[in-house]
Every structure is written in structure tokens, then in C-alpha cells.
Amino acid sequence: MLPLETNGSEDLMTDLFTYIDGHQDEFVQSLKEWIAIPSDSSDPLLRKELIKMVEITAERIQALGATVELIDMGQEQLNDGQSVPFPKAILAQLGNDPSKATICFYGHVDVQPAKMEDGWITDPYNMTERNENLYGRGATDNKGPVLAWINAVDTYKALNQEIPVNIKFIIEGVEETGSQGLEDLIKGNSSFFSDVDYIVISDNVRLSRKPALTYGTRGDAYFFVEVQSGTKDLHSGTFGGIIHESMRDLVYLLANLVDSSGHILIPGIYDDVSPLTEEERKLYDDIDFDLEEHQNNSGVNTFLYSTKEEILQHLWRYPCLSIHGIEGAFSGYGSKTVIPGKVIGKFSIRLVPDMKIPVVNKQVINHLKSVFAKLKSPNKLVVTLQIGALPWIANVNDLQYEAARNAIRKVTPEMIRDGSTIPLARIFQDLTKKSIMMLPIGGADDGEHSQNEKISRSNYIQGTKIFASFFLELAKLHKDLQMNNDPLTIKTSQQNGS
Amino acid sequence: MLPLETNGSEDLMTDLFTYIDGHQDEFVQSLKEWIAIPSDSSDPLLRKELIKMVEITAERIQALGATVELIDMGQEQLNDGQSVPFPKAILAQLGNDPSKATICFYGHVDVQPAKMEDGWITDPYNMTERNENLYGRGATDNKGPVLAWINAVDTYKALNQEIPVNIKFIIEGVEETGSQGLEDLIKGNSSFFSDVDYIVISDNVRLSRKPALTYGTRGDAYFFVEVQSGTKDLHSGTFGGIIHESMRDLVYLLANLVDSSGHILIPGIYDDVSPLTEEERKLYDDIDFDLEEHQNNSGVNTFLYSTKEEILQHLWRYPCLSIHGIEGAFSGYGSKTVIPGKVIGKFSIRLVPDMKIPVVNKQVINHLKSVFAKLKSPNKLVVTLQIGALPWIANVNDLQYEAARNAIRKVTPEMIRDGSTIPLARIFQDLTKKSIMMLPIGGADDGEHSQNEKISRSNYIQGTKIFASFFLELAKLHKDLQMNNDPLTIKTSQQNGS
């Protein structure tokens, strides 16, 4: 199964790349406009901005010539009893030639929170270019990659070239808060997915400077542990000494989640982790992974492990637990002598095959209740699972992996997994049974979810080129596959050379 | 030593009270205007507002006819290496008749932080009256009491009456962050204090519905414990599992400060606490303290202790430790999958006689270093004492206590101590050797430092009356004292009856 290389398609690729290089400032400007919208899905006060972001995305996709449908996702119930509308989801279709492969691109246009005072050097919502890097919230996660895909399609349109594949889009606005409702959306729109051949996600980053394809992600179980001592905050001078303080209980609970070697202290949590086979162990030997560079990117002096193999295994195939913060306590600059009345500790466990969310949920609740019981505290404890996303793993021999390897010319992509969570990969796999591929265009040092998130100008533009050539490569392999599988089919669709 | 009661002074008191009742809406309006200025001393971004607040206060005192001096307090060094100007301090004098007593009033016009999202029902900076309570940040701590004192003086002026005492003011703008620089200010202005007879502070609240005089306060040692794992925040998917997370270390440190019975775990911390004598123990029997009401005010179901005596002792004469919060971790609504790079835990220990700040500081640092050593963490630990304020205790037989007891007619004030900290009480006592009295006008349920801080309209107006009549009562007792001590002095100053 070799790619059907014709001079025509090689010429077209050159034209596409020339156009993309010539229009890069325009593509960068589009990204700047998208980043200017603070589409933070975790903040209900910014919900209007998020809804606006989804609308702008829908208009942009419609301008490609696609048929766009905006799907109502209902209301989000907030903890205080209020509710706000979820942003709509976008389902879109461009082309429906049955002889062509159909690729569905998944992306999201919501972002993580970002505030100057967290340590941003530039305004997170005013994209700023420094040293050929484009800094701004959402630059790499996930506005940059979504736009790169749109730019790639746009390039065919601008050159008056037929797009060699049918393209579908599924774009959502609540990925950063757990993609609520999307599973139902997929289930409820099975006809949309029935003619999809391949699903592509570009919502993670590479492992090194080398382009990569991702064939697995960890899942995530995000917990809130709430301790309430009373109905309001109190002055520590007026009440300190006689109160069962909620913060005292909470820090004790949080201190009993993970030890200083990174080992999770929740009984039974490792029981379902799939054992490391000799075959899998060998895979890690071949990965090109610059430990020193990774350490530099992290800004950390010492990792928990010292070898490449241990590091990759603990990022890809073992669970971990991170404590993210506390809501309700004093978090500002300076000093405040408050006894918080209600505090919510937030932590999450990255899940790996074959951990099960209901089992993990039960283990966490039982453990925290048992630790809390030792405190003999009269305070109220509530533990809730806020987000539950399963891990995902793909077959790296699927056709679209081969097409992507061809698209990334002259550079052999790494076959990697990813420690972070893209819930839809697993959901798509379970519900559609299609081949899923993650094709990251962002760099390992892009700082997704961190201060000073960025995407490099070159990765953004190179990513646009990879997507554009991926369409061609996939079309070729798909045609070969159809011819091999079904020699009687008369091929009417031709690549347009120019 | 009986008060010299004359019909003239009784008539004047009636006139003063009638005027105050008739102008209460005007007094309430003044408080609303002061609360509208967000003079939060902990937030460097609000420093201009704080400086404006001090200027407005200075103008208001000048309008009483006082000579006002604004004292430069230098620059505040921020943790990030920047600096902002401290607000100036106010020294003011109204009257210098050597035959009259001279009272110096201490107060502050800075406030604690306040944000709607902390759970305020009304805008903290837009004073709102509900059920005859005036809600707003600073209503009781300390703008209301400062204005009540000014209103009291103003009432004499409005009625064209001679004020029976000389009045001095010392007003500062950084009480909530530790009154930095004020000790030097007092030392550097000894001539201002040399002719002061009595110092009055009204910066705390009553214990019950009964008016009270406060003769002691706890001190406060406020610590920052900073743990840094790296130079920036990281994504818990991309880096979780290989990082020595700073939050893990911090929650373990914080969990080792105090046990669930309220006992502080820092070795040696109780060594200098003065033993409870039989004489002191008996004092608690007489205090009118409604445990149930105190519990209702607190919004808490269960206290650490069940008897009045234990509760009061643990609020007044034993130290306690409160964990206030964490800076640098995720503190917002919703979920964020961040591994914070640098986190600062904030806690404070209320100090009692005879604890010493350098000793406590050393004990805290040694304890945290020893706990941290057990973690064998490569992270960086820094422990700093941010605020160190000593406890204070007064002689309840001083003349001004008697005058205040007279001023609060028909209601016997409680002789109480206070669990919270007013650093200046102790500093004044040490540096000026004058008689210090705290005369609270706010109620136990006012919620200083909490959401929905308020002062009741009646306490604010009644407080103005108490201050106005206190001037008269003190003048009478002071005159008696002078006549008894120095029979040759010819009294030229008379109370003006009307």
C-alpha cells in the first residue's frame, strides 16, 4: 500500500505551501482576533464571550462553504443553584463526495482561565509576538490548531483547488471543563458520524522538537473536596481558638492524598492499572526524548525520576494525583486574618488503562471519609467527582497514521502517547468505532494551561502545511485502499494538478 | 472621687444627644461616602484609593478646626521587588488648654479585602441599609467608629459649645496589614504625645449586646510559608507524575501546624504563656456572655469548648493558630488542571502574655524546616514573619475607664479583653506609658474581616453619643483629680451650660 505519487499532486503541494507562506501574517492576524475573546469556560461571568467565540467560529467555518449546524447543549447548573446556558456545539460538513475519504476534525474554542496577576508577561487576551512566538491564552490550546485546520482548507479554496477529502467539523466550547453533553451529542447525531472514515484531533503538544502523532492519552478524574465549618468567614482574632476551622481539616485531607515520592495514598487505586509488558517496555527505548530539554521547558530542577523510560511511563501509563488549589480561602496578595467558613480543595487523578471511573470515585470517597473520621470534626464534608474522562489508546497501523507520516515529509514523526486528557478521543472511539488520530502541531514548551501560553509562528504555519498535505496524502492512500478492496469501483475523482 | 455633676453639664448632654438624633441621616451619609472608597491596604493596585481615603480623613479633621499634620511613611517593599508609597499618617490637634485633659484618639481608615464573589449580599463598597444595619466594608472596622468620634466633636462645634477636653488624633492607613512604621512615628513625635493624658481606641467589637470597655487584646504573628517547585505553573496532564509538586509539600506543612482539637503542634509554643491564676480564673465567672448568641453570630454549629469560661479563655488568654489560605494555587470557581509552580501558605498565631515574637518566629521556622526535611523534597522552602504584633493589657482602674463607665449611663459596661489584635494598644503602652482604653461601639455580630460587614445604625449613633458624653465625664473626673492633686491650681476653664 504505497502512496500514489503523481507530479500533479506534488505540484499542488508546492502551490499550497507557497500560498501558506505568503499569507502567514493574515493567518497570524486571525489567531490574534480569536485570542482577543476571553472564552474561559470555567467562569460563568464570561459565558457571553464564550458564546460569541462559538458563533464566530461557526461563521468562519460557514465561510469555507460548509453547511453548519449549531446544536443547543442546554443549561449548566452552577454550585450556587444558578444556571447559565452552555455554549452551542458546532457540527459542520464540507463536501459529500462518496468516492472521497471523509475526515472529521474535532477541536474546541474555550480556554483555561488567565489573569495578568498569575504571572503573564503580556496580556493573555492580547496576542503578542516575541521572538517569533505568539503569546496568548488559547494560542496552542486549542485556537491555534483549529485555525490551522481552517487555514489549510481555506488554502485549497483560495487556489481554486478541489479539496481531495470530505471534511466535517465538530467544535465544542466546554472542553476545559470536561466536555459535558458531548457524549449525548455524538449519540444523538449518529447519521453525522456514519460516513466519517477518520477522526483527527489536534489538541495536545509534541514531545520534542520533532513532529509527532499521538496514539494514546490519559483520562482524568477531577474531584472537589468541600469542608464547611459554618455559614460565613470569621475574623481570626474574634473567633480563633474556639472554631473547628475548615482549612485545618482540608489541608489534613489533602496531605493524605499523595506522598512525597508521587505515590497515591488512596487504597486500591493501582489495582486496575494494566501491567507493563515486555513488548510495551521496549517501545520506550526508541523514543527520541530529550530529558534535559523537557526539564528546561518545565522550569523544574529535579524530576521524580531520572531515566527517559521512567519519565515517559509515569507520564503515559501510570496514574498520578495533582492538587490544584483551594476555592473559598484567602488567595490574594498580602495578609488577611480570615477563618474561611467553606473551602473547596481541588485535585485530579490522571487515569490510565484499565482504571474505571466509578471504581476510582468510590475509592477516593471512601479514603477521604476514613481520613476525615480520624479528625472527629463536626464540620461537613462533601466529596464530588466533577469531571470523569477515560484514557484512550489507538491502533498506530491505521491508514490515517500512515497518511500523516507521509504528510510530515522528511521528518519521521514520533509515535507518542500523552499524559493529558482529551475526553473526546476515548468517547469517539467508544461511540463511533472510527480510527482516531491526534496530530499535534504545538511544541512541548507551549505552556498549555500555564502562564504565557504560546504557539511558535513556525509551528502554526508548518501545522497549516501539514494539515493541507495530510488531505492529499490521505486521499491517495484512501483511493489505493478502495481500489484494492473494491477493484470494480470506477474512480471518477481526480487530483487537480495546476 | 465622684463626678462633679452640675445642671449645666446635664443640660448640655441633653442638647448634644438631641442634636445627634436629629442629624443621624447626615452622619450615616458621611459613613456611606467613606465606605465608597475601597481603601484596602493589602492590595497595592488600590494604593491610590487608600491615599485618597487618608487625604479625605485629614480634610474632615481639619474642618473641625484642628491643626493637621500628614506624616510621610516611606515606601512599602512588595514581594516582587517593586515598591509603592505607604499612605501618610495623620497627627492632629484640636485645643491646647493646659487646664483640660488631653485625649488622643487612635483609628485607621484602611480596610480588609472585599469582593462580591466572596459572598457579599450587597456591594461591599456601596453602603446599603437593611433592617437598620449599615452594610459595607469598613462599617465597623474602623471607619464607623472613627466617624462617630469626629461626629461627637462636630456636635460640640455645631452647638457652639466649648469642647471640655483637648483632642488629638492619630489616624493610620495600614492597620490591616500590620501598622508598619507607626512605632517609629510615635518614637519620632514624642512631643506630640508628651501632653496626652489618655489614649482611646475604638477598633474592636463588644462581646454581647451590652456596651463594653476592653482592657486587653491578643497579639498576632502572621507567617508566609512559600514552597517553590519551579519557575512557572504546569499542565497536570503534561507534567503530572514526574514533578515534586509544591502544593503537595505545602499542604503537608500546613497539616502539621495545629491538630483537630485546636492544639498548636509547634514545639515550645506554649512555654511563655502566662499561667492562669486563681484570681484571673474568677474574673470569667462575672462576665455576661451569651454563648448561644455568640454561636449564632459565628454561623458555626459546634465550638471547640462548651463552657463560657473555656471559650473566653481560649479567645483572650491562650494562643491559637489559623490557616487563612494559599496564594499562587488555583482559587477560582470551577476546575483548572494546573500544577502551581510557587505557592504561599498563610497562617497566623494569636499571641498572649508573655509570648515573645522573636521566640515564636524561631519556633515556627525550626518546626517547618524539620517537617519539610522529612519530605526530602528538592523544592525551595522560605518561611517569613510578615506581621508581628504584641498582646496588650491595661489597668482597669485608670481614670478614663471610670469616665467611660459614667458616659455609658444606665448600662454597666463589661470589662472585657479581646482575642483580636490592635498593635497600637501595646505599642502606645510601651512607648508613651499613658493610660490606654478601648471603647468599642460595634456589635459582636458586625462581621469585621468577613463578608457582609456592618454596623447597626443604633450602635453608630449611640457610639457618637457615648463619645460626646465621654468628653464631659472625663473633663469632670480630670478636674476633680487635678483639684485633689494640686489644690493651688486656679481653675479657669468652666463647662458651658446652655
Automatic annotation (TrEMBL), chains A, B:
Its cofactor is Mn(2+). The record marks H235 as: Important for catalytic activity. Binds 2 manganese ions per subunit. It comes from the Eukaryota. Transmembrane segments: none annotated. Keywords: Hydrolase, Manganese, Metal-binding, Metalloprotease, Phosphoprotein, Protease. One of its GO terms (molecular function) is metal ion binding. SUPFAM superfamilies: Zn-dependent exopeptidases (SSF53187). CDD domains: M20_dipept_like_CNDP. GO terms for biological process: proteolysis. The active site is at D110, E175 (proton acceptor). InterPro entries: CNDP/DUG1, Cyt/Met_Dipeptidase, Peptidase_M20, Peptidase_M20_dimer. Mn(2+) 2 binds at H108, D141, D203. Belongs to the peptidase M20A family. PANTHER family: BETA-ALA-HIS DIPEPTIDASE (PTHR43270). This is Peptidase M20 dimerisation domain-containing protein. It comes from Hymenochirus boettgeri (Congo dwarf clawed frog).
